[in-house]
Amino acid sequence: MTTRAVPRVYPALLRAAWGSAVAYRGQVVLWLLTSLFPLIMMAVWLSVVEEAGTAGGFDGPDFVSYYVAAAVTNHFTVAWVSWQWDEDIRTGGLSVKLLKPLDPFHHHAIEQLGKKLLIGAVLLPAVAAAAAVVSSIRYPVGPGTAAVAAVAVVAGFGLNLVMASAFSMLSFWSTQVHNLYQLWWGVGFFLSGWVAPLELFPPTLRRVAVLLPFRSSLGFPVEIVTGRLDGRAIAAGFAVTGAWSAGFLFVYRVLWRRGLRRYEAVGA
Amino acid sequence: MTGSQAPGLRAGTYLRLLGIFYRNSLLNEMEYRLKFWANVGLSLFWLVWAALSVRVYFRFTGTIAGWAYHEVLVVMGLFFTVNGIHQALITPNLARMTEYVQKGTLDYLLTKPVDSQFLVSLRHIGVHNWADPLLGLGLVGYGLARGGTAPDAGAVGLFAVLLAAATVLLYGVSLLLQTLTIWSVSSRGMDDVIEGLLETGRFPVSFYGGAVQGLLTAVVPVAFMTTFPAEALLGRAGWPVAVLAVTVSATIFLAASVFWRFALRSYTGAGS
What we know:
heterodimer, A: mainly alpha, 12 helices, B: mainly alpha, two-stranded antiparallel sheet, globular
């Protein structure tokens, strides 16, 4: 299939992915439950603030706003495609997908999108309602900045997709890729802004963290929407996201071509 | 379908069976030596990483809800211990439950002359994260050493009782969920829920404050698994807590066993 034809099949496939997500909505509820995890971090910070007054300029409401935005952002940026790639390549399920005219990457991406739409349809109204009731949830930015934050969320999702795919390509050569990716992801968990807003890190660690790809899918959009970044910092953040995305995309495509040659050799 | 009772088998027989099952699992796992040791390395990495991340909180305050850094390390060590026990004892069996019900393997298990609850809940062991409980206890020791206070014999005894109660409690709660599979047919996602709840045991329950703290003590008894045993070692808990813990875990254990037998009565088998 030519690259130009891809956008045309997306809507149809997306409808199918939505249907599948709705059919297994029980699982989505569970998914939603397990993703309340950032609120644990929020609770800890609220206890810290209770004792210390403020922490690095953050007070209670700041933490609440930060982590509510983080929970939403994470929903949209997370891309659990690595285990699927891994399974397809190991068990030979990839062969079936290769018969289809669309690159398997798009199948994985669309399946994620379908889930995100469904969860978004539940989550966004819920958060809007909470923000209307709870006065400490506040986002002091105009619609323009909010739109920039939304773009940052989409960019973060894109980066996560190509990053997970690039790692997954190693499955052509090894069976331990899942562990490797988990390790990578575990490091990122701390440096993305989950455990603490990056502003609260020691300065050296913070300077390293803003250059790594992890912040793009969590801390960066949240910092924009909470009004903590100026124009230059936002531009720099997008530059980091773009550079890592391009890098991982390149690695993914190269490994994909090499791996595919090897995969066919094994199958034949 | 009944037949879950197996008269005539004594505790010794069950222990011997467990020995055989677990030796089998271990041999299986040892085929992949590199993976085995890689997992130990990974566990150690997670432990150190988790302990270091907590330091961020203590950049801004000396104590959180009355807990100093070294005391939080004790709780975190216990979290690794309990989580490791969960992954070794609970997950492998819970994960197989879907298959038992969907493929009718359960019918076959029920015909064996051994108690069915024993078979479905303890047959398999995950050797995968076997080092977690040991590394966790190591972190507990480190936390105590850092604080400079050695617990006396009474505190250690109290701790042992509480940790044993925590294990039984974890088993009971998981069996309750596993039993639900008989009706829901799929146990997918259930283990994620248990894991998500356990995850809150990473920190002392008082970190969460108010309603959540009450919830984690009275409804979802996570407090009994990490916070209370840690308090015992730090000399903050008395025997009343132990009595309460033993009562709670015994109750849950019995309730889960009764529930399992009740569920079997409504199980009609895959074939009939």
